[in-house]
Amino acid sequence: xxxxxxxxxxxxxxxxxxxxxxxxxxxxxxxxxxxxxxxxxxxxxxxxxxxxxxxxxxxxxxxxxxxxxxxxxxxxxxxxxxxxxxxxxxxx
Length: 92
Fold this sequence. Notes:
Layout: E1 9-10, H1 23-32, E2 33-34, H2 36-40, H3 57-76
Parallel strand pairs: 1-2
């Protein structure tokens, strides 16, 4: 019994991608085409934004001061244990 070998159709560089009506049609398209030549011919480089941006020192100091000023109010709240302490990042 011979097995059918599935070949992938080469996608020509510069040819626009089609619009897809269904997710199944899109998946079938991506699995049936080879895009190596198109990517080598000048594909766009994917650049991602950083996941976390460190706040400026001014903003960090402002947040720490706000946390320090709220700490006594939080401790005085009815039902709150007296040992609650709010510590902002950067405080030692």
